[in-house]
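The data layer described in this paper is built around a simple, fixed record for each protein. Because each token names a local backbone shape, the row as a whole describes the fold. We quote a single record here, exactly as it is kept in our systems:

***
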Amino acid sequence: MKSTKTFTTFQLTTLVLLRLLIGWQILYEGISKLLIPNWSSAVFLRESQWILKGFANWIISHDGVLQVVDFLNTWGLIAIGLGLILGLFTRLAAIAGASLVFLYYLNSPPLIGLEYSLATEGNCLIFNKTLIEAVALIILVAFPTGSIIGLDIFISRFSKSKTMKEE
């Protein structure tokens, strides 16, 4: 792991700010799903028109599977958001977040010929905020600031002390 000396104060601040902002947005998405009575991913999955359309339809057609997907989606978002905000298991949270957000993208990318009944933000072609967020999370995987500013500090200290004791 790189020490703080490899980052300028500005670089570290912007990376931590990016982590916090994305973490908050993802955490809020999870909490809102938890608090909305009878929320289900079925509405989103019905809109799937691209390479995951068949998989989305399969999920919708099996109530038990849909309930598991809804549970994993809601609590996954909450766990990912908390991990990013707290800087706890930051790399894992960023990988999980990028994977989940990229799955959202693959279900409804802004491509020519695909039309969705759900409202979208702005006019996008190929690249949208979902894809940009996935890429930003990959950046956070490359620069896991949780071991500098976050609870990952304690994990790295524990790992180092354990390694030193074994030697």
About this structure: Residues 7-166 form one domain. Residues 11 and 84 are 17 Å apart (CA to CA). The helical segments are 9-35, 42-46, 53-61, 63-86, 90-107, 129-142, 152-166. The chain has one domain: 7-166.
